[in-house]
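Minimal example, chain plus nickel (II) ion.
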Amino acid sequence: MHARIKELALKYFQEMVGTRKYLHQHPELSYQEFETTKYIKSRLDDLGIPYESPLETGCVGIIEGAKKSDRVIALRADIDALPIQEEGDFKKEFYSKVEGVAHCCGHDAHTSNLLGVATILMELRDEIEGRVLLVFQPGEERLPGGGKLLCETGYLQSQNVSAVYGLHTSPSHAPGTVATRVGPLMASPDEIEIEIIGKGGHAARAHEAIDPIVLASQFVSGVQSIISRNVDPTESAVITIGKIEGGTTYNIIPESVKMLGTVRTFSKSTKKLIEQKLEALLKGITEAAGGSYTFKFKQGYPAVINSEQEALNVLEQTNALFGEDAVIDLERPSMAGEDFAFYQEHFPGAFFFVGSGSEESDSTYVWHHPKYNVDDRFFLTAAPLMASLVLNTK
Ligand code: NI
């Protein structure tokens, strides 16, 4: 079966490459993927695959296997693009036709890949046990996350999904490789918004003012010890203040300082602890000086935590298809975030990275870089692996 799947992936390779170029030229922003959805539906129509539309954009294709079973495998692809003006010579022949919008996170490749997987599975339908759901998900790039919205509709729950799989292109891994791990894979990214309010005044009469720049400096220094002195050392976490803004010139003490930052964690308890410690620190520093503050902790996606059986399925099927050199069992999780996490709150599932970075195709730029590109060989790994997870796992 593995050889047959790889043969079919080769047969449809050029088609997947072409689909990706088409999608790349016609990107749409999160929750506005109307034309993309139309295109996906027309392709499913061509394949004779029925679909449902639990959300306004995106859709879920349904393949009924010939073998009766309660098993329902969901395969997810995100379909949205980013508000980025793209760059780079390599992609010139299929540049985005939309000013300021581009597929610079590989979701064009994810969508094209899932259409390729659908084509392969339709040829092998006699071998499929139970049902396959092809989840074309909108809005991965913007909160609240299309994965969250889809889970809230209860559609997948009503389908009794047994396992869910999702993937991402990976510019830091070579084509032909697959990287994942059992357990925590990607962090939960939350956003913080802070304002420290003091009392403005003349720089020479600082004793009459409450200097928010001094308070903000104390706060930023204090934040560093939350990770080193409050968070359990066996838990990974990051707090970064990414923006600090206050003041106008040499000799004026401003009224307030604003800060933006991000918190990355893997467990709800650590997240809660950091939220509480940040606010306690802020309260202590500002109260002592007679100032005040505002604090917003905006919950992002949960952490991507792979269930054991499904993550092992990914590693084993990669090995069976491509040999052990293709398998990268990651030692550490990534601190990036993904809304695939929402599915994993309801169903067992695994997320994995498929190598898409090479010098030849100028595709080693990080996700969201204007020159971001995907090596075409991504499809020769991603499509057979997803098909194999349907056909060769229990
Ligand atoms: Ni992405």
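The mean pLDDT is 96. Residues 105, 107, 140, 168, 367 surround nickel (II) ion (CB under 6 Å).
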